[in-house]
Amino acid sequence: MTVASEIIPFNKPYLTGRELSFISEAHLGGQLSGAGRFTRLCETWLESLGGSPRALLTHSCTAALEMAAILSDIKPGDEVIMPSYTFVSTANAFVLRGGVPVFVDIRMDTLNIDETKIEAAITPRTKAIVVVHYGGVACEMDPIMELARSRNLLIIEDAAQAIMATYKGRQLGTIGDLGCFSFHETKNIISGEGGALLVNRRDMVDRAEIIREKGTDRTQFNAGRVDKYTWQDLGSSFLPGEVIAAFLWGQIQDAMQITQKRIEVWNEYSVGVRGIKHGMPMQIPPCNCKINAHSFYIVFDSRQYREGAIKKLTDKNIGAVTHYVPLHSSPFGKKVARTSCDMQVTNRVSEGLVRLPLWVGLRKEHQLIVRDSLLTT
């Protein structure tokens, strides 16, 4: 059996080697506030991924989701359908506007929202559906989009974990009306903090730019389309500084290579942990999806087995973590949201899931240590 001789962290931020030089360029160029050269470069690249009319860098995916809620004209009492197994920002963005999250259960194979249970959750107050592409694996977007269009509902993609992943050849985040990315240091392409809003409808672009600029038409002013900028709408300080954009541009240069290296680690895990006791890898990407290998997880049969596995991994200096506490079971979720169906899969997954270390540079011998630890649980 392989013996651990070093710490194997859950995540290790990857540097391409270009980030610091680009930050220096931003400084020498005389602009460290946002909307400079590197911001434009990153946004143009994001637009090229899937043909979005406009990509707007933000200081976080949380900010992108909050912009999406404003663009969706969420009013007090409006309902927004989403999974409960997601990060709190997915719901908070809409609650801040007075919206009511309506939680739907997830599929066991992908941990994405169960598309067959969405229609039953729709009421006359439903305004939008938020899909979360868990672990960079696509939700079943065709039937969801068909349902949304038939009911005149907006689709917002929480693609925080999904950069460089696709559904039937289409980049996740570009299929719905709006898409939200994260570049947090735990994601595939990083800038420490950071995010982006993809505006996939041309009729939303002008307002999105105003919302990001604190509710002013400063973007039009900078482009010479107005002679002064004024307060036009709701908004806030959603724009990141140029240092964040410069760092991100360094990452973007290697986006394909980063994705491929992560997929190699993911594939190694998928073979190595077969035969595990009291649990099994549950992420089964549909054949029409291209994954980005954001995460690799195992769902154990119970909390007891899950905790036992984490202890054995921790004892060998291996960083393994659980994930979300379902929002429908949280104190504030019970107060401001409602649940539309039995949350059996969500509850089971939250009790048993463990995420394994996955980062660029994770060596095969590291994975053998993780495998050996799991096979003895």
How much of the sequence is in beta strands?
5-15%
Supply the CATH superfamily name of the largest domain.
Type I PLP-dependent aspartate aminotransferase-like (Major domain)
Poorly predicted runs of 5 or more residues = none
State the end-to-end CA separation.
14 Å
CATH architecture of the largest domain: 3-Layer(aba) Sandwich
Structural class: alpha/beta
| Number of DSSP strand runs | 14
CATH topology call of the largest domain: Aspartate Aminotransferase, domain 2
By CATH reckoning, the class of the largest domain would read: Alpha Beta
Number of domains: 2
Summarize the structure.
With 377 residues, the chain is of the alpha/beta class. The chain has 13 helices and 14 strands.
Detailed description of the structure:
By secondary structure, the protein is α/β, with parallel strands linked by helices. It folds into 2 domains: 19-252, Type I PLP-dependent aspartate aminotransferase-like (Major domain) (Aspartate Aminotransferase, domain 2, 3-Layer(aba) Sandwich), CATH 3.40.640; 255-375, Aspartate Aminotransferase, domain 1 (Alpha-Beta Complex). 36% of the residues lie in helices and 14% in strands. It is built from 13 helices and 14 strands. The chain has helices at residues 19-28, 37-50, 61-71, 88-95, 141-150, 205-212, 218-222, 242-252, 255-272, 303-315, 331-336, 344-352, 364-375, and strands at 54-58, 79-83, 100-104, 126-132, 154-158, 166-167, 170-171, 178-182, 195-199, 279-280, 289-290, 297-300, 338-339, 353-355. The chain has an 8-stranded mixed beta sheet with strand order 1-9-8-5-4-2-3-13, sandwiched between helices. Helix 4 (88-95) links the parallel strand 2 and strand 3 (100-104). Helix 1 (19-28) runs antiparallel to helix 8 and helix 9 (255-272) packs parallel to helix 13. The chain is globular, with a radius of gyration of 21 Å. The two termini are 14 Å apart. The mean pLDDT is 95.
